[in-house]
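Ligand: fe (ii) ion. Inputs:
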Amino acid sequence: MVHESFQTVDSQLNWESPMYKLWEKAKKNGKWDPAEIDFTQDKIDYENMTDDERITILPLVASFAGGEEAVTLDILPMVQLMARQGRLEDTMFLSTFMFDEAKHTELFSRWQKEIGIQNIDLTSFHGDSYKRIFYEELPEKMERLNTDDSPEAIIKAATVYNMIVEGILAETGYYSFRQIFKKAGMLPGILQGIDYLNQDEGRHLRFGIYTIQRHVAGNEKNYKIFIDYMDELWPDAYGVIEYLTTLYDIQVAQDWVRTRFDFDSNIMREYAKRQFEIRKNQVDRARKYADAVQLEQEWTTEV
Ligand code: FE2
Ligand code: FE2
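Predicted complex:
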């Protein structure tokens, strides 16, 4: 591909565009360093945990660590696609996106190292649904962008990456983490990291919603592609949550005397279901616009 012209030479950056605004937010709010988080108390808390309590944290860490690593490794085709399509502001924003994901990956690896469990292989905590989404569906749909610029390819990539992985699984994970460990007054280091992560993921989600919405505005065929794919992925997305909650129930709820947690895993299941509906509704809102141009005008005031 050769360049025909340069946007910052012949006109300028589109300062009011939604993705430029997100880039500004990322520069301002994304300044944190996993290496500066103090995990001293986390190490003490972990050492004082019973085996049952550890079985609550380790599957969550295994899910988060694998998930963050997957999204770090798999984002590049989306960056290249936006660059190929001449979307400069999207490409600029995605440069922060990839940096964020790399920091998230560092956070969970660093946490395992700092509390002294770096030699434990947590792979066995990845169930069938987790494997289907993170080992197969996510990389396949992202890799497809290397050779396919179609709306269907873009919608499916953003749906599995931003809506399912970030919008449902990660959000449910943060929520559960806080419900379990914040309430119990444990693991302040990783909880601080999760607060940073949550803020970063808010921006990532905005990118995903906007990207899908652009294709859905004025295009019912594309809307159907989105909805059908969400429904196709839902059993495995829920399967990830079901696996974690079942483990929790076996280890903790039925043996509550030996743990200090006060968390009803049904709340986690309900939370995930609610996220699924919220993500669908967010994309649904784009249907009222005639096209992507009209959508962008509205977004400018919304972001
Ligand atoms: Fe992340
Ligand atoms: Fe993310």
